[in-house]
Inverse folding.
């Protein structure tokens, strides 16, 4: 592993959620989750709202 870079396995397409996975079942919040999810989550097909982790 190179210092500061994630391991190669994190780019494995098998680790992507297909179909996309939204933490909330409330479809009205899905557009918000598409915008607010961290990039690393979006790249893997996981979508959350900005407040989702604050409630966890």
């Amino acid at each position: 592993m190179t210092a500061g870079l994630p391991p190669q396995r994190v780019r494995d397409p098998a680790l992507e959620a297909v179909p996309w996975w939204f933490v909330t079942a409330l479809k009205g919040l899905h557009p918000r989750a598409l915008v607010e999810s961290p990039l690393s989550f979006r790249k893997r097909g996981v979508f959350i709202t900005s407040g989702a982790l604050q409630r966890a």
